[in-house]
Specification:
The protein is mainly α and 57 residues long. The chain has a domain of 38 residues. The protein has three helices and no strands. Helix 1 packs antiparallel against helix 2. The longest helix is centred in the middle third of the chain and has 21 residues. It starts with a helix and ends with a helix.
């Protein structure tokens, strides 16, 4: 789930290669989502999925 959220700007045509700071933030997001998924399981994944479904992209 974290990797999906991190990859969205690049899939939308991010014109510049990611900087070190962007890579660090992306890694932090993926690790945070993984830990929260381990702690709260399916409820967390369902909540994030609902939040992503409700945002217009």
């Amino acid at each position: 789930m974290g990797a999906l959220i991190v990859s969205a700007p690049f899939a939308a045509g991010h014109p510049f290669p990611p900087s070190t700071i962007e890579l660090g933030v992306a890694t932090l997001i993926v690790i945070t989502f993984a830990l929260m998924g381990c702690l709260w399981g399916g409820r967390f994944v369902d909540a994030v999925s609902r939040a992503l479904d409700s945002t217009p992209v």
